[in-house]
């Protein structure tokens, strides 16, 4: 057992801080033993399968398909047929109504989806229930309304759908990312082949049942499960006109390389290493809440997580003290418990990556702080962690950890804060905390990031464009701008 | 006695100055010895472009528009020379009018491309376009002036700085344009123009880690390889057309930034 493991398991929880369990019932979810691929409106028996588990208990949940290139080919053919035989020619107002139906059904079945999301992905039910599901439904609702108004969104540009969109999504917000991808693609008149992440296929598979209830024409949305090999086959497939990928910068670059010379359209939403910058005049308690939400929301499995805290020197000590106290109150554990703040790490692989980077932080000389915390025996867990005395050159200040690990750095002047914040190949998001309005706008103008949260953090909305600068990718999702990657124009 | 004219030395345009290639190399094009830029010249040009970019982006949109209008004035003043170095008077006039057209976009982009977003919560939320940074342009072979102007001006009007590789076979119009740029108020380093072999210079630009976007208008069969190289730092890759005029040409080299702030008492 490593020192870190001992620290995580060995510390007793003070008796005063015990919470009674408040579990959300799993009964609402009825899992099949085995799932196929959803192709052309029907279930396709998979040639190969793997087991998907709950990261909180390591229990097997179901067998799902590992889509082969032949199965990818069938899904693309189904999407092409649906595009050409009706969907692209359907009146836009009718397309809109299918999307409205999907939004409504997601609202109606929100609890079922929230439980399944937490079960398969490990995120707290509080978050799947209050963030993922409402936002997923809202995305469909928002883009539904655009379907028959595209010529107002893009005046004088004569918008047309592109054709078949291949979409590859990550495991941190499985259903929400599905909504971010499918809603604008369908609103624009395309058909879709979507691959959910290897570790979180179940809400996407349940979404097939929403499509059945919505009576969406067969082949308009096709769902293939599998790992990176399935994704690569989809990217390579000559019948796909557009690829949309959300995931790591490493894989994003590989996709961009793979598509070189193909003429396929591409949008990438990749990693981040956001600076959350706190000035000495900020409302400290609010800032602490924002910092905690910024990095511990969804176990830090968030590409726009505020993983680098930049604190003005004069308030460094009181802020870090408040942050430590706040960390002691975070409840880590069963994702299905309604009191849980921090759930399970999504996979053994991700846990290993977090441990490796945390070990590097200790080796390089940063000071680690972890609150007393008792973790369940089974499953994948990591205690919310704060590193202080971090130098910009440390790996924990440079690399995306994608876990509940915060690196704290300091600055003296706004210029220095800016210099440090922008000193990264990433550029997805940033946070600024100050009561001075002119400084917020000064910082917001100069931060090289696609989303800037001022006196708040990790807010999302279907009307609000999201996406990165630099190596955090290109293209926007959300808002009017999120339609553009799914359209071609006769100009 | 007839007077012997003073002939021009055709050089690069980097950081507002006219250096020879550091390699000392030239090649013959249009009957002249033209500088044949090296890998090091590319790196110098990118460095100059990066240094100039924040101030150019920070200038007011009104100011950027005026500066580009001034560039149109400078080109008009040399219209006779340009006519001889391009396909003729018509190309020159179209190039001038295109610069004026784009100059007028500087202070309108944010209103056409940006948005205010009605989020479902107590937040003020808006999206503004911003330059992506340093843009590399492989200018089309033809037409020598209008092709370059069509690819060069859109990224510049949006607040980017540019390193452009001129038409390889007809580089003289590009060098003439550099002279017009140098006598306009475009700050040194915002526009850099290199002459030389595209097959040498393209891969250096495509793989340069401090270049944010790449316009492959003049790529010639090697664009898949250049695209592959561009992925190393997730460059925005554009396959620009030689003769097009649209605000969406500017938008290709813009990022969108969304800012949130709570609303409260």
Structure description:
The complex is a heterodimer of chains A (491) and B (265). Chain A has helices at residues 3-10, 69-87, 92-108, 110-121, 125-146, 150-153, 174-187, 202-214, 228-236, 249-258, 284-296, 316-328, 348-364, 395-398, 414-421, 437-446; strands spanning 37-39, 42-44, 49-53, 60-65, 159-161, 164-168, 191-195, 221-223, 242-246, 265-269, 275-278, 308-312, 367-369, 385-388, 405-411, 429-433, 451-454, 473-474, 487-489. Chain A has a 7-stranded mixed sheet, with helices on both faces. Chain A is globular and about 65 Å long. Chain A is α/β, with parallel strands linked by helices and 491 residues long. Helix content of chain A is 39%, strand content 16%. The N and C termini of chain A lie far apart (64 Å). With 265 residues, chain B is of the alpha/beta class. Helix content of chain B is 42%, strand content 18%. Chain B is built from 10 helices and 10 strands. Chain B has helices spanning 39-58, 61-77, 79-85, 89-103, 109-113, 146-157, 172-182, 198-207, 223-230, 247-251, and strands at residues 26-29, 32-35, 115-116, 123-131, 134-138, 161-165, 191-194, 213-215, 236-238, 254-262. In chain B, the strands form 3 sheets. Chain B has a 5-stranded parallel sheet, sandwiched between helices. A 3-stranded antiparallel sheet of chain B has the order 3-4-10. In chain B, helix 1 (39-58) crosses helix 8 (198-207) and helix 8 (198-207) runs parallel beside helix 9. The interface between A and B is large, with 43 and 32 residues. Strand 17 (451-454) of chain A pairs parallel with strand 10 (254-262) of chain B, so a sheet runs across the interface.
């Amino acid at each position: 057992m490593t020192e870190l493991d001992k620290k995580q398991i060995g510390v007793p929880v003070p008796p005063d801080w015990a919470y009674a369990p408040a579990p959300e019932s799993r009964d609402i979810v009825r899992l099949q033993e085995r799932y196929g691929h959803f192709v052309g409106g029907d279930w396709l028996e998979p040639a190969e399968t793997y087991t998907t588990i709950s990261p909180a208990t390591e229990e097997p949940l179901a067998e799902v398909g590992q889509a082969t290139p032949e199965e990818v080919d069938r899904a693309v053919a189904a999407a092409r047929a649906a595009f050409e035989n009706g969907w692209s020619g359907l009146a836009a107002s009718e397309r809109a109504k299918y999307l409205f139906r999907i939004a409504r059904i997601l609202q109606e079945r929100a609890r079922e989806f929230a439980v399944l999301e937490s079960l398969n992905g490990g995120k707290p039910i509080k978050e799947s229930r209050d963030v993922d599901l409402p936002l997923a439904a809202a995305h469909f609702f928002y883009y539904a309304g655009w379907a028959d108004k595209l010529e107002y969104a893009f005046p004088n540009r004569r918008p047309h759908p592109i054709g078949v969109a291949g979409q590859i999504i990550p495991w941190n917000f499985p259903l929400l990312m599905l909504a971010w991808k499918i809603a604008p693609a369908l609103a624009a008149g395309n058909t879709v082949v979507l691959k959910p992440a290897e570790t979180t296929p179940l809400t996407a598979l349940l979404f097939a049942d929403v499509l059945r209830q919505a009576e969406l024409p067969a082949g308009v949305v096709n769902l293939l499960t599998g790992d990176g090999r399935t994704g690569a086959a989809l990217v390579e497939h000559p019948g796909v006109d557009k690829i949309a990928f959300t995931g790591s910068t490493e894989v994003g670059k590989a996709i961009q390389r793979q598509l070189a010379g193909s003429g396929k359209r591409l949008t990438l939403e990749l990693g981040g290493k956001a600076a959350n910058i706190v000035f000495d005049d900020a409302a400290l308690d609010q800032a602490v809440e924002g910092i905690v939400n910024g990095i511990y929301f969804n176990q830090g499995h968030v590409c726009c997580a505020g993983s680098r805290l930049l604190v003005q020197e004069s308030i460094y000590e009181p802020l870090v003290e408040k942050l430590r106290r706040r960390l002691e109150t975070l409840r880590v554990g069963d994702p299905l418990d309604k009191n849980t703040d921090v759930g399970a790490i999504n996979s053994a692989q991700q846990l290993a990556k977090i441990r490796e980077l945390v070990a590097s932080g200790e080796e390089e000389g940063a000071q680690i702080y972890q609150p007393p915390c008792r973790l369940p025996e089974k499953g994948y867990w990591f205690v919310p962690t704060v590193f202080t005395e971090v130098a910009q050159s440390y790996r924990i200040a440079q690399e995306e950890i994608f876990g509940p690990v915060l690196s704290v750095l300091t600055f003296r002047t706004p210029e220095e804060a800016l210099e440090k914040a922008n000193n990264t190949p990433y550029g997805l998001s940033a946070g600024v905390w100050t009561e001075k309005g002119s400084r917020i706008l000064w910082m917001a103008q100069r931060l090289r990031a696609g989303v800037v949260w001022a006196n708040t953090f990790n807010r999302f909305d279907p009307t609000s464009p999201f996406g990165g600068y630099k190596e955090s990718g290109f293209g926007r999702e959300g808002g009017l701008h999120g339609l553009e990657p799914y359209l071609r124009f006769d100009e | 006695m007839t007077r012997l004219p003073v002939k021009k030395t055709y050089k690069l345009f980097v950081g507002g100055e006219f250096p020879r290639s550091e390699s000392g190399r030239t090649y013959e094009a249009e009957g002249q010895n033209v500088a044949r830029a090296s890998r090091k010249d590319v790196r110098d040009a990118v460095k100059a472009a990066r240094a100039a970019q924040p101030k150019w982006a920070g200038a007011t949109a009104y100011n950027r528009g005026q500066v580009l209008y001034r560039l149109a004035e400078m080109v008009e003043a040399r219209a006779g020379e340009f006519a001889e170095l391009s396909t003729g008077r018509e190309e020159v006039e179209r190039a001038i009018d295109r610069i004026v057209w784009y100059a007028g976009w500087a202070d309108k982009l944010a209103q056409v491309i940006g948005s205010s977003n009605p989020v479902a919560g107590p937040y003020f939320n808006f999206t503004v376009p911003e330059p992506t940074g340093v843009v590399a342009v492989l200018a089309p072979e033809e037409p020598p002036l209008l092709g370059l102007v069509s690819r060069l001006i859109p990224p510049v009007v949006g607040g980017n700085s540019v390193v452009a590789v001129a038409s390889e076979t007809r580089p003289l119009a590009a060098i003439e344009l550099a002279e017009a740029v140098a006598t306009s108020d475009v700050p040194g380093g915002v526009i850099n123009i290199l002459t030389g072999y595209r097959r040498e210079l393209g891969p250096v630009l495509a793989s340069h880690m401090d270049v944010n976007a790449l316009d492959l208008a003049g790529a010639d069969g090697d664009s898949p390889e250049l695209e592959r190289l561009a992925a190393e730092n997730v460059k925005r890759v554009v396959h620009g057309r030689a003769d097009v005029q649209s605000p969406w040409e500017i938008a290709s080299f813009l990022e969108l930034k969304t800012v949130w702030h709570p609303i409260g008492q």
